[in-house]
Structures are given as structure tokens and as C-alpha cells.
From TrEMBL:
Gene source species: Fragilariopsis cylindrus CCMP1102
Family: Belongs to the adenylosuccinate synthetase family.
Superkingdom of origin organism: Eukaryota
Gene3D superfamilies (UniProt xref): Adenylosuccinate Synthetase, subunit A, domain 1, Adenylosuccinate Synthetase, subunit A, domain 2, Adenylosuccinate Synthetase, subunit A, domain 3
Residues the record lists as binding IMP: 42-45, 67-70, 158, 172, 249, 264, 330
Entry binding sites for GTP: 41-47, 69-71, 332, 358-360, 440-442
Cofactor binding note from Swiss-Prot or TrEMBL: Binds 1 Mg(2+) ion per subunit.
InterPro entries from the UniProt entry: Adenylosuccin_syn_GTP-bd, Adenylosuccin_syn_Lys_AS, Adenylosuccinate_synth_dom1, Adenylosuccinate_synth_dom2, Adenylosuccinate_synth_dom3, Adenylosuccinate_synthetase, P-loop_NTPase
Enzyme active site: 42 (proton acceptor), 70 (proton donor), 169
A Pfam match: Adenylsucc_synt
PROSITE patterns found in the cross-reference section: ADENYLOSUCCIN_SYN_1 (PS01266), ADENYLOSUCCIN_SYN_2 (PS00513)
The protein's name: Adenylosuccinate synthetase
Length: 458
């Protein structure tokens, strides 16, 4: 395989030379790195992004909308990000909201105002894709109404209008941020979309003139930040700038690969980096899967290792882990770490290393069951079943690991962790076959240990 690869590279170089062209090779270290959620979301991606982003020139969001949430604490100030890349806290970095994001502009402006009030200067550092679709208030109203209509069969959405906005996009009647450049065109498309929704949803109210007046008033401010982010991103890459993509949501909420229909309406997996930012897969570098040391989930859907959060170990995870959603405020469902689920996530995303978070939450547990296999009707499964009835019925096989009582929040080297704690981490690493590079050992920004670049796969 190596010889074939080298031959193709040489052939390409010869062709370029013969045509008078030039092959631009990727410089060592030049790549687009990605932080993704490997479970059902809320894994703690923001903390790693916050740490890494200090070394990057460009930070980008590529999928989802204000249904996602990162919380970053800097100098005792809590920042909650829903649309902006949290790397914008690095004063030297620019933030890009890619074409794959659906953006509720009032929420976006509120988020910017929050940064300004806290002394963060974002002027000239935030860029919105002119191809990003807009989430309107009526999308949010429809989202809530649909959830109510579903009753006990509800999906468990955040009611932020994400699904209806993506539905408009796929139905080809959506409105994009760049449409604001031509007011007549924007108004035409907005009226058509609003009237379509009024016809489709009985009882829905939209003050079309009021909405248009609002968007006309904010258009200059929005357009000052709007550009062709595909061109911008690829130009920054060409200049050798370091680029970090902040994944939103997580693999098991992916519209294609997640526990459908209890998923989000976008692709939070690795594919979204290509389609939501407009870059080639050849430009990807590190793919960092963020894994909570146990499992949580917000909303409905199967959850094989779930515990009762009102009693015993489930209550411990929920209480010590402060498991409430950043976006919804809803209590999260909690359970043991599910390695079959993570193997599936690894297959899809090809993580080069893992960021293991909230290991400290397990402190104080006498034993820690680790989900290592699925059985259905007495037979072992090779992967997560697509059919939710089957996933709901799987029997999880556990390995019981010994717990620890020592405070690990001050540990900054792997060697400093208690023996049982290290054994837990190494067993996860062994079964998954992917190195664990970062380990979260406490709630504070600095409570993380980094085992070094040697704990990354090529």
C-alpha cells in the first residue's frame, strides 16, 4: 500500500510539472483539527476546546445551531456558547460560523452582546457564512408545537427550531444569511416561507411585517460579519494558519448514525466538517473524541447502561456531576460507560485520540461497572443495532472495576492518579484501541492532565 501511495503521489507531481503546474504539499503540522462529542452530547468538549484554542488561529462551528451548548469559566466569569465558537475567547483567534450551521440571528446577537459586556472584543474577529441558513422565530414555534403534538412519543428536542430550519433547508425554501445582501430577494423568500408555514400549521401566528422590519434593522450589523467562509477557511489553511473545529452535539445524536429518530437534525460526526465548512478531507489532522467517564443523555431514546438518577450510584453521578443541560436546563439521564457504543462511534469518526472527561465524578464509588458487550436474545452483537427496539432490549455485559476515594483534582500527571483510577483508564484504552491523551480530573479550567502528543494515532 505504501508503494502504491508513493507512486500515485509521484505521478501527480509529474502531471503537474508537465502542465507547468505546482503541487502544494501539506506542511508538517498543517492540518484542521477537530473536537467531537463521542456519546450523546454534554461530554465536556468545551473544556478541551478552551485549552486547545489558545494555540489556534481559527476556530469554527460547522453544524447544528443554538441547540448546542458549551460552558467555559475564565477568571470566575461563566461564558455560555450556543452559536459562536468558544475559541473566540482567544483574543488572537477568529471565529467562523460555517455554512452547515443554522443560525437564529437574535440569539447570535445576544451572545455577542454578552461577550462585549464581559470585556471580550470580538470586532473584526467573527465571520458568518453567507450560505448558512436562518432559524426564524416561527421555526421555534413550530418545533415546540410538534413536540407537544407528539405527546409521550416526543423526540425531546431543545425547541430551538433546529429541525424545522433544516427541514426548510432540505425543502429548498429556506432563507440564507447571504440573502440579506439583496433586500428585495430576502423579503420575497421570507414572505414565501412564512406564508408556507401559516398554511401548514393551524394556529401559528407570524407578524410578517414586524419580522421584516426587525431583519431590515439588523441587516447592516449581520452583513458586516458575513462572507464566503469557504474561501476564508481555505485561504487561512493555505497561509499555514492553525484551524480548530468545535463539534456540536455528538455522534449518537447524528441524523444518520445516531439513535434515530431521537437525534438532532444535522450530522455532528466527522462528515459535517467537510460539508459544513467546505474543506477537503485531505486537510484533516487530529480528530479528538470527547468521552465522559460515564454516560449521560438528555431527552428521549434508548440508553443501554442507564441508571435510576434518584437513588444509589445513579444519584451519585447526577449530583456530583451536576448533570443539567447547558441549553435546556433539563436533568440528564445517567449511566455507566458504554464501550460498545464508543466502538461504534470510533468506527464512524476515526478518532486519533480521546479526551476522557469528568473522571473525578467517579471518586467515592466502591466499584465501577464498565459496559463491555451487548447481547440480544442470548447472542453477542458485533455493533450497535440500528433498530431501536433491539437496542432497547440489549443486555449489557459489564466488567466490574474497583473504585477509589482519593481526590484526583490536583493530579497533573497520569502517574499521580490512584492505582485503581489508572487501571480504569487503561482498561478503557485497551478495549477501544485508541489512546487517551487528555483526562479531566476536576471542574476548574486547569483540572486536566495531558499525556502528550505520543498518545495520538496518525
Amino acid at each position: 500500500m505504501k508503494e502504491a501511495s508513493l507512486g500515485l503521489s509521484a505521478a501527480t507531481e509529474n502531471i503537474a510539472s508537465g502542465l507547468g503546474g505546482k503541487v502544494v504539499k501539506k506542511k508538517k503540522g498543517q492540518a484542521i483539527d477537530v473536537v467531537l462529542g463521542a456519546q450523546w452530547g454534554d461530554e465536556g468538549k468545551g473544556k478541551l476546546v478552551d485549552m486547545l484554542s489558545q494555540e489556534y488561529d481559527v476556530c469554527a462551528r460547522v453544524a447544528g445551531g443554538s441547540n448546542a451548548g458549551h460552558t467555559i469559566v475564565v477568571n470566575d466569569i461563566k461564558y455560555k456558547f450556543h452559536l459562536l465558537p468558544s475559541g473566540i475567547l482567544n483574543p488572537e483567534a477568529i471565529g467562523i460560523v460555517g455554512n452547515g450551521v443554522v443560525i437564529h440571528l437574535p440569539s447570535f446577537l445576544t451572545e455577542l452582546d454578552g461577550l462585549t459586556k464581559n470585556g471580550i472584543n470580538h470586532n473584526g474577529r467573527v465571520f458568518i457564512s453567507d450560505r448558512a441558513h436562518i432559524v426564524f422565530d416561527f421555526h421555534q414555534a413550530v418545533d415546540g408545537a410538534l413536540e407537544t403534538r407528539l405527546g409521550r412519543h416526543k423526540i425531546g428536542t431543545t425547541k430551538k427550531g433546529i429541525g424545522p430550519a433544516y427541514a426548510s433547508k432540505i425543502s429548498r425554501n429556506g432563507v440564507r444569511v447571504g440573502d440579506l445582501r439583496n433586500w428585495e430577494y430576502f423579503e420575497q423568500r421570507f414572505r414565501a416561507l412564512a406564508e408556507h408555514h401559516l398554511r401548514s400549521y393551524e394556529g401559528l401566528e407570524i407578524d410578517i411585517e414586524k419580522e421584516l422590519a426587525y431583519y431590515k434593522s439588523i441587516a447592516p450589523k449581520i452583513l458586516a460579519m458575513t462572507c464566503d467562509t469557504i474561501q476564508l477557511t481555505n485561504q487561512k489553511y493555505k497561509e499555514g494558519k492553525k484551524i480548530l473545529v468545535e463539534g456540536a452535539n455528538a455522534a449518537m445524536l447524528d441524523i444518520d448514525f445516531g439513535t434515530y429518530p431521537y437525534v438532532t437534525s444535522s450530522n455532528p460526526s466527522i462528515g459535517s466538517v467537510l460539508t459544513g465548512l467546505g474543506v477537503s478531507p485531505k486537510k484533516l489532522g487530529g480528530i479528538y473524541g470527547t468521552v465522559k467517564a460515564y454516560c449521560t443523555r438528555v431527552g428521549e431514546g434508548p440508553f443501554p447502561t442507564e441508571l435510576n438518577v434518584l437513588v444509589g450510584e445513579g444519584e451519585h453521578l447526577a449530583t456530583v456531576g451536576h448533570e443539567f443541560g447547558t441549553t435546556t436546563g433539563r436533568p440528564r439521564r445517567c449511566g455507566w460507560l458504554d464501550l460498545p457504543q464508543l466502538k461504534y462511534s470510533i468506527t464512524i469518526n476515526g478518532y486519533t485520540s480521546i479526551n476522557l472527561t469528568k473522571l473525578d465524578v467517579l471518586t467515592g464509588l466502591k466499584t465501577i461497572p464498565l459496559g463491555v458487550g451487548y447481547k440480544l436474545n442470548g447472542e453477542y452483537l458485533d455493533t450497535m443495532p440500528a433498530c431501536l427496539r433491539e437496542l432497547k432490549d440489549v443486555e449489557v455485559e459489564y466488567e466490574t472495576m474497583q473504585g477509589w476515594d482519593e481526590d484526583i483534582s490536583k493530579c497533573r500527571r497520569f502517574e499521580d492518579l490512584p492505582k485503581n483510577c489508572k487501571t480504569y483508564v487503561l482498561r478503557i484504552e485497551e478495549i477501544l484501541g485508541v489512546p487517551i491523551r487528555w483526562i479531566g480530573v476536576g471542574a476548574n479550567r486547569e483540572d486536566m492532565l495531558d499525556r502528550g502528543e505520543q498518545f495520538e494515532q496518525e
